[in-house]
Design goal:
The protein has 248 residues and is mainly α. It has helices at residues 2-28, 30-50, 56-67, 75-83, 87-100, 106-128, 149-168, 172-195, 201-221, 223-226, 234-247.
């Protein structure tokens, strides 16, 4: 009887063990999972764009952002967010990074990143040749639409900064705050492009997906050529500070 009960208990524990192992596997290969998801979404959007079909997310975003969110007071704010991914502003931010960053090669790492992703975006636009939305633009833009260049550049630039802060910043509060800010900025840039009527939501989402795939590759291949590995004792330093505060 005891053996039967033991078998039932082990049978109940086995699915939990499998799920736990699966969770650990996904966490251990989270970058690969992110790339797979982004690639799947990008290819799905691309197939619908190439077929010339109306993408459902474009209809929803137009209804929410263009039809119901537009306001005279909000337009200058959206234009300011959109400007964050323009060449002049990016160059200014690169100069600021060169001035304040403790690692001088970080500026060149960011510059090469945003420069290469801009080239990738230009090539993708030439291949897809999707026309921009008509009759709703609040600003003048030229060129093709898919994927969004502003969204790709913002995601690559601020995404790399978020990755850098998360890996190299030892102060937990500063690391969390800066990571949230750097992750939020590309989202705001993408929303601004839809709001201004120069991109479809699928352009923005496709740009984000392409840029995240690019970042996964860039951080593995190119970043080690510019930056040393983060200090191994960063975690222990943070733990020591926390314990010292508790003792105090």
């Amino acid at each position: 009887m005891k053996d039967t009960n033991t078998e039932h208990k082990s049978a109940r524990r086995e699915p939990r063990t499998v799920l736990a192992q699966l969770g650990e596997l996904l966490v251990a290969h989270r970058a690969l999972v992110l790339v797979a998801v982004c690639l799947a979404v990008f290819l799905l959007l691309l197939s619908e764009v190439l077929r010339g079909e109306a993408v459902r997310i474009d209809t929803w975003a137009h209804w929410l952002i263009v039809d119901h969110l537009r306001a005279d007071w909000l337009t200058p704010i959206m234009e300011a967010f959109s400007a964050l991914a323009t060449p002049v502003v990016v160059i200014v931010m690169l100069l600021l990074i060169a001035a304040v960053a403790s690692r001088r090669r970080l500026m060149w790492c960011c510059a090469v990143n945003v420069g290469l992703v801009t080239l990738v975006n230009g090539l993708a636009k030439l291949l897809v040749q999707r026309q921009r939305p008509e009759g709703i633009a609040l600003v003048v833009e030229h060129g093709f639409s898919f994927p969004s260049g502003h969204s790709m550049a913002a995601c690559a630039f601020f995404g790399l900064l978020a990755w850098y802060v998360w890996r190299y910043e030892s102060d937990r509060r500063r690391r969390a705050l800066l990571t949230v800010v750097f992750c939020a900025l590309p989202v705001l840039v993408g929303i601004s492009r839809i709001y201004l009527g120069v991109h479809y939501a699928s352009d923005v989402l496709g740009g984000f997906c392409a840029s995240l795939i690019w970042l996964a590759l860039y951080t593995k291949v190119a970043v080690p050529l510019f930056l040393d590995a983060p200090s191994q004792n960063r975690g222990s330093n943070v733990a020591n500070v926390a314990s010292a505060r508790r003792r105090a």
